[in-house]
Amino acid sequence: MKNIVLGTAAILAMTTTASAAEWTYAHYNQPTHELHLGVALEMAQDVEEATDGELTIRVFPSGELGAGPAQQYTRALDGIADVTQGLVASDTFPLPRTMLMELPNLFDTPQEAVDVLWENIELFEPDFQGTKVMALFPNNPAALVLNRPVSSPADLEGLNIRASSAIGAGIMEAWGATPVTMPAGDLYNALQTGVIDGALIGIDGINAYRLQEVASHVITNIPGNITMFYVVANRDSWDGLSEDVQAEVLEVTEHALSMKGADAFTVSGEEAIEAINASGNTEIVELTAEQRALFAEPLPAMVENYLDQVSAAEGFDAQEIYTAISQ
């Protein structure tokens, strides 16, 4: 009888092992980055706990399964990794509905944006036909980092300001500046040498690229934009899970994981403010309500123009989505 019991236990153990799955999770950030620590590793831990080990996730940071942000979505789509994490505006795969979240003067915090997005997630799902969305979240609202103080759009007239997307470029043009495109890694030297006069960037990015060492002012409380990030799973990998495991994964992803991404950026932003203040080189200036209104005034025309362009190019009603997320 003892041998029979042991044999049955061994068979059960083998069955459990055989039914368990391991996913790969690829991203391009360094292991010290807030998105690796606060999103990728958090998802891996939460999923393993939620599924009692039936699904585990191995995270590959630093571009180990493919460098840079441009092809991350495609790597999930093609199954190079089971899960990828990327930057919506930098990806070569178009996600035009999700990009509307980056229009200016919509959200004051990343948590607010997460709540609004997931309340209207059905409007964004057509962007992700070939994958399963695990998380969508933004960084902190953008700030201006410059080598001069500004208090109105008139102060930006004719300046060369780096913007990271078409929406950012539209904001700069609305404010009278000349938008410049360049990788974030080039900002330090470009600011230091005067190639650009400033940049529109999340305050966490200012610290990540040490821009407080080469800039004199950081302007906050501008009616700028956020930058959207995604975590998606390969559709075949997702469909290969049992319904029970899928339900357990969804409990710790979607809105919950998105909020962890937002919280990670909030903490990173707070650390950035401390680092900027500690630098002794850069002054943080928060716009007054009156000054912010001056920056907000030219933006509706820019937004209307962008919505018209997207609707014509992509064949869906961009205004409908914008109305839903701006209420």
From TrEMBL:
Pfam families: DctP (PF03480)
GO biological process: transmembrane transport
Coiled coil start-end: none
Annotated keywords: Signal
UniProt keyword annotation of NADP present: no
Transmembrane region(s): none
The keyword Signal appears for this protein: yes
Domain of life: Bacteria
Signal sequence, start to end: 1-20
The name this protein goes by in its record: TRAP-type C4-dicarboxylate transport system, substrate-binding protein
Organism: Pelagibacterium luteolum
